[in-house]
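Fig. S4 source data, part A: sequence.
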Amino acid sequence: MIEDTQTLLTGFGAEITGTGVNGAIVTLFNDANKNSKLDAGEQLLTAAPIVVANNIWAIADVNLSGGTNSIRAFQTNLAGTTSKVSTALTIMVQTPGGFDLAANDDSGLSKSDNITNKSSGLTISGTAFSGGKSVTLFVDGDQVATATVSKGLWKTDISLSHKDTPYVITASQTNADGSSSEPSIPFSLTVDRQTPGVITDMAVAGGIELADNKGYLSNKTTGLVVSGTGGDPGAQVALLENGKSIGSGFVDGDGKWGVTVAKFSNGTHNLKAQQTDLAGNVGLTSTTVLMISIDSVAPAVPTSLRFNKESSVISGKGEREARLTLFNDSNNNSRVDDGEQLGEVVSVDASKNWSTAVDLPAGQYANIRAMQSDLAGNVSKASSALSITIAAAGLTRALQGYSSPAVMEGVVVEGVALSLTEGQRGDWLSWSS
């Protein structure tokens, strides 16, 4: 068990143990900035959780950076409660450490990911263990530079060509007495000078795809998402209109990306896309143009409603290609409520006309209205009311020509009580049979 400040000849394969509460999960980290908090990149990862058993926990094969390592731990019990952070265990590793690519040479969006599109004059720096005189740098096992140690620090410039895989950089330290340290923990550096591909696939989430490659239609002016595929994982995709960026997003591991546009004005927008990879290489602007038509304006109110009694058809005027709904506004609230729609939803033709047949029982309808929605989904206000009276059906011809004094009572034909004379009775019975 490591309990006090320790000095190790190499940072490879250290074993760290401690005590805790049975069943708790222990998180171990190297508190590089000594703020007693677990920050990004500080956790000492393991393949499986460190579980306390018999009040003891252990983690083997811990790789530590050269120089001073401030090791801390905290535990999380079965209820999910996390303990305070432990006091620091200081481990001194007698190899160079603290490798870093200078921010000016670390191109791309991040200045600390050690991915660059520069190949010459790359400044690598780090720390040396006490007593160090010089540090020798190796790239993929080959010696490339030697740097002088000053006040425990060193730096040197190297040149590297483009490589599809990361370079592995290690260092060893020569002390004042001529002895050499063990090799350091590897440092990974990527030099990527390859231009990313051209974005070719773009679409609008939630937009209406128009026929004949005329792009997309939407009634949203804010928060519209343009998405696509074919990006380089980790790259940033910028959406361009007239050569200027109107939003950006990142490419996921599957090459998919999405950009949320803060605001669009009404009208047609022609968009292109361009990606910049992690190293800062900028791809060509897409040749594919994504056309988005924004229409957030509600169509006009339908007009000229009229009723043809002979055909039982209601017709009127609307907006070309709009979808029109006719309804009996029984509660006069200018909305289509359950059970109020009349007939099918119909399309307005190129001449702005529409019509639909209705089947209404006899009665008075004082508030027949229409509303229309355009292709983008915008809905108009309700039209003025059309009043319709549907009359009851008339008597049949069978009763025509019969009228006489009351002789025979109680005969009813189509709801009408009749009185027939004796002379007419024979005619009636003959007709009725």
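Fig. S4 source data, part B ends here. Helices lie at 422-432.
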